[in-house]
C-alpha cells in the first residue's frame, strides 16, 4: 500500500514537472515572438539620418527592457500590462491544483522575503483556494500565511492559521512555534504553555519552546497577581457604591431601575449613578455626611441647560437661582430679553409615567424635592425645568402635560 502511494506521488510529481516545462516553453515562445515583431517593425521604420549616440541607444534599450517579460517585480496595486497579464495567466492556469498552489506559494515566499507581507498573504490565500490534495503543502501554506499575518500584527488571524496548519499536519513545528508566539503576543499565557507542550512532546530539547514556556509561566504569575489586585479593587469599589446607594435610599430617594424595597442590588444598577458627559462629577457624601448631587437645570424656551456640579441636599433652590440669576449677576448670553430673574423663575420636575408636571417651591431644599414619592433620579443626575412665570412659553409647555401639581 505504501509503495502504491509512493508511486502515485512520483507520477503526480512527474506530471507537474512536465507541465512546468511546457509553461517555460510557452513563455519562451511568447518572448521570441515579441522580439521578432520588434525587429520586423524596426526594419520597416526609416533608418535614422544620423548615427545614434550612446545615450540614445541606451534609452532605446531601456525602453525594450521595460517589457513585462523582463520585469523583476510586479506591482499588483495597478492594472497589469496585457503582456504581463498573459504571462501570469500562463503561469497559473495549470489544471493541476497542486501545481497552481505551488506557484502561488513560491510567489508568496518571494514577497515574504521582501517583507511585503500583505502581498504574500494574498498569494498564500490564493494557493489555499486551489484546494490541492497535498496535506503537507496545505500545512505549509497555512503556516506561511500565519507567519505573514504575525509580522503584520494580526496575531489572532495568525493563530487561527496555525490551528488549520496543524489540522493538516499535527506535527508541523513551524505552526506550533508560531502559534505559541501569537498567544504570547496576545498575553494568553495558559495557551502558550499548551502550544509549547505540544512541540516539546516531539522535540523535548527545543530551546525556543523551552524558553518561551518558562517566560509564559512567569508572566502568567504576574498576570494572575494583577488580576487579584484588580478584583480586590473592584470589590472595594462595589462595596463603596453599595454603601452610597443605601445612604441615598435611607433618605427615601428613588433611583431609576431600583426600588426602595429592593433587598438585593445588582452591580449593573450602579451605572445609574454615572453621569453622562459630566467629567468626574458624581453624587457623593461630604465630610458633614450630606449628599452632594450633580444637578441639571433645563430651559425649554431657549433649548439651553446649566449643569450644577455640586448641589448639597440641604441647600435651597432659591440659593442656587440667586447665585445664577441674581441682580449682581450678568444675564446669560442666550437671555437676550433679560427675563430670567430670581423672582421670575418657576422650577418644575416631571413624572413621565403619569405625564404630570410638579411645581417646586423655590424655598424647598434639594432633599425635600428628591424625597418626593414621584421623583425618580435618572442616571444619578436630578433634573429640573425652569420657566418664566406668566410667559407664553410656560403656558404652552404646561398644556403638554395631563396634570400640573404642586410638589409641596
Automatic annotation (TrEMBL):
Gene Ontology BP term (one): protein folding
Coiled-coil boundaries: 1-33
Cellular component GO terms, alphabetical: cytosol; nucleus
Single Gene Ontology MF annotation: Hsp70 protein binding
Region ranges (Disordered): 221-240
Keywords attached to this entry: Coiled coil, Repeat, TPR repeat
Residue ranges constituting the Cns1/TTC4 wheel domain according to the UniProt record: 286-399
Database matches in PANTHER family: TETRATRICOPEPTIDE REPEAT PROTEIN 4
Protein name as it appears in the record: Tetratricopeptide repeat protein 4
Amino acid at each position: 500500500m505504501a509503495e502504491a502511494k509512493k508511486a502515485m506521488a512520483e507520477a503526480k510529481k512527474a506530471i507537474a514537472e512536465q507541465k512546468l516545462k511546457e509553461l517555460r516553453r510557452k513563455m519562451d515562445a511568447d518572448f521570441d515572438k515579441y522580439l521578432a515583431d520588434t525587429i520586423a517593425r524596426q526594419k520597416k521604420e526609416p533608418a535614422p539620418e544620423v548615427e545614434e549616440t550612446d545615450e540614445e541607444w541606451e534609452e532605446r534599450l531601456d525602453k525594450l527592457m521595460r517589457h513585462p517579460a523582463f520585469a523583476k517585480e510586479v506591482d499588483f496595486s495597478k492594472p497589469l500590462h496585457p503582456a504581463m497579464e498573459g504571462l501570469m495567466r500562463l503561469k497559473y492556469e495549470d489544471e493541476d491544483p497542486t501545481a497552481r498552489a505551488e506557484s502561488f506559494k513560491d510567489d508568496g515566499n518571494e514577497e515574504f522575503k521582501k517583507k511585503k507581507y500583505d502581498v504574500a498573504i494574498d498569494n498564500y490565500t490564493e494557493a489555499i483556494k486551489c484546494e490541492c490534495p497535498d496535506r503537507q503543502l496545505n500545512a505549509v501554506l497555512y503556516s506561511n500565511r500565519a507567519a505573514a499575518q504575525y509580522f503584520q500584527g494580526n496575531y489572532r488571524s495568525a493563530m487561527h492559521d496555525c490551528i488549520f496548519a496543524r489540522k493538516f499536519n499535527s506535527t508541523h513545528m513551524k505552526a506550533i512555534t508560531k502559534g505559541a508566539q501569537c498567544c504570547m503576543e496576545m498575553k494568553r499565557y495558559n495557551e502558550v504553555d499548551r502550544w509549547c507542550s505540544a512541540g516539546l512532546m516531539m522535540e523535548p530539547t527545543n530551546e525556543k519552546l523551552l524558553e518561551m514556556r518558562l517566560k509564559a509561566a512567569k508572566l502568567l504569575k504576574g498576570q494572575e497577581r494583577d488580576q487579584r489586585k484588580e478584583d480586590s479593587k473592584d470589590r472595594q469599589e462595589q462595596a463603596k457604591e453599595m454603601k452610597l446607594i443605601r445612604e441615598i435610599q435611607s433618605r427615601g430617594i428613588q433611583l431609576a431601575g431600583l426600588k426602595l424595597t429592593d433587598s438585593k442590588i445588582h452591580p449593573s444598577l450602579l451605572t445609574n449613578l454615572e453621569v453622562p458627559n459630566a467629567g468626574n462629577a458624581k453624587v457623593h457624601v461630604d465630610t458633614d455626611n450630606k449628599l452632594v448631587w450633580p444637578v441639571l437645570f433645563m430651559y425649554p424656551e431657549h433649548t439651553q441647560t446649566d449643569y450644577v456640579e455640586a448641589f448639597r441636599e440641604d441647600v435651597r433652590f432659591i440659593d442656587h437661582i440667586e447665585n445664577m440669576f441674581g441682580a449682581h449677576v450678568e444675564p446669560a448670553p442666550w437671555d437676550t430679553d433679560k427675563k430670567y430673574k430670581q423672582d421670575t423663575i418657576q422650577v418644575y420636575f416631571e413624572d413621565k409615567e403619569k405625564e404630570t408636571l410638579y411645581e417646586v417651591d423655590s424655598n424647598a431644599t434639594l432633599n425635600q424635592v428628591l424625597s418626593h414619592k414621584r421623583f425618580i433620579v435618572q442616571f444619578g443626575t436630578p433634573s429640573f425645568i425652569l420657566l418664566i412665570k406668566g410667559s407664553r412659553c410656560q403656558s404652552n409647555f404646561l398644556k403638554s402635560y395631563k396634570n400640573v401639581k404642586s410638589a409641596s
